[in-house]
Amino acid sequence: MSARTPLIAGNWKMYKTEAQAEDYIQALLPLLSSVDGVEVAICVPFTDLRAMVDSARGSRVEVYAQNMHQEPEGAFTGEVSPVMLSDVGVQGVVLGHSERRACFGETDKALALKVPAALEAGLRPILCVGETEEERDNDDTERKLRQQVRDGLARVPDERLAEVTIAYEPIWAIGTGRVASAEQAQEAVAFVRALVGDRDQRAAEGVRILYGGSVKPENAAELLGQADVDGALVGGASLDAECFAQIVAAATR
Ligand code: PGA
Description:
This protein has helices at 18-31, 49-56, 82-88, 98-104, 108-120, 133-137, 141-153, 182-199, 201-206, 217-224, 241-252, and strands spanning 7-11, 39-43, 61-65, 92-95, 124-129, 165-168, 208-212, 231-234. The longest helix has 18 residues, at 182-199.
């Protein structure tokens, strides 16, 4: 792995009440006590944010949200703003997850506003990109990634590009148990890095790019061993503290 510090981010999706989240963090923290050289984040439902920020304080675990609106406030029923997240002590936010794109109409146009809004509020954004199975079969992966990366970063100034983490998540590998091969992951992640390089070469060297999609303790080391893969966005396997800690450990090797 490169000089970039790896990031292992767990995406809980719509799982865990506050009590379940508390049990989880109490189990996770001791498992990470000897871990070094890797950043760890858990992306939790809104209702768990405050409790997890309190419980993770002083530890290596950062707490991220899974979505936000781009405006600081306004008549947007059901939405949560970047300012509200940073006020709670949240350190980052996942943006443009494929489930938000597919189920809730998240668009590249909205993401073009959300990514810089997160940075301005002091949040670390993880911008998710990735192709469907059909797009991969039609050799359309690069076009899709180019569009998502270009639009998502369009309004981020060059000097802040490296503060964005990008997660390459092939949609066909999310929650399916079908993981991309290490070679496929490396190829796509390197392509994403080159796209950032089209904007700014220094940013391309600094930007962290994660792989996501059916990452498990059994396949983590190989995926994380690829030259351009700077970490993982982990869904299902992040719900179990023990499993998640094993993936974090794989990133330290
Ligand atoms: P998965 O989810 O690890 O369960 O495939 C990944 C994600 O949705 O980020």
